[in-house]
Structures are given as C-alpha cells and as structure tokens.
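Handout, page 2. Input:
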Amino acid sequence: MQTESNDNTGILTESLADIQLKYFGSIKVAAGKGNDEVAFTPNTSVLELLLKLSDAYYESFRSELFQDNGNLRDDLMLMRNGAIIDRTRAAEIILESGDSIGLLPTFPGGG
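Output:
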C-alpha cells in the first residue's frame, strides 16, 4: 500500500504494509470484533502496534493487553503467523507485510 502526505516541506511518500489481527476470548469482546486489518509503517514493532491499538480502542481493550504499570500482561499470549512469540521481546520483533498477529488471553484449564 502506498500513501502520500504533505509534511509542509513537500510531498512525503511513505510505504505502508498491511497485517491481519485476530482477537480471541475476552480480548475479542473488548475489541468488539474478532478480526482486524491495519496498515503500519516500516520498522514497527509488535509492542508499538499493541500500544497504537490500545489507544484506538476502549480502556477495557487496553486493560486486556497491559498491566497498570504499562507492561504487557503476564497472561497475554501473542502469536505471529501461527507461532507463539515471547511477549518480553515484543519491542524487538519487527512486523512484516502480510503478518498475522493473534492476541489471546491465557485460558484457564485443568481437570
């Protein structure tokens, strides 16, 4: 995807890439939908994406992703293209066009 914007110094052309988001459980309820597609700029990390998403949705969505201290919740599971990723590395993992990101709360279990 290509976009153009005027930054008062002339035309600035910036490439945007699309990713798919999938929400599950209580995160899906807080988002009000199960899927989303967003465009992002190059060199955007998973953490930056989550911060932008949390600003775009209700406080209930933010609280599903982040603790009060601003860290990602311990019970949040992140997936990229079907593989679980380490949430402690979310600031280091750079998104690529076509990525699919899943946001899952930890599901209680036992038996």
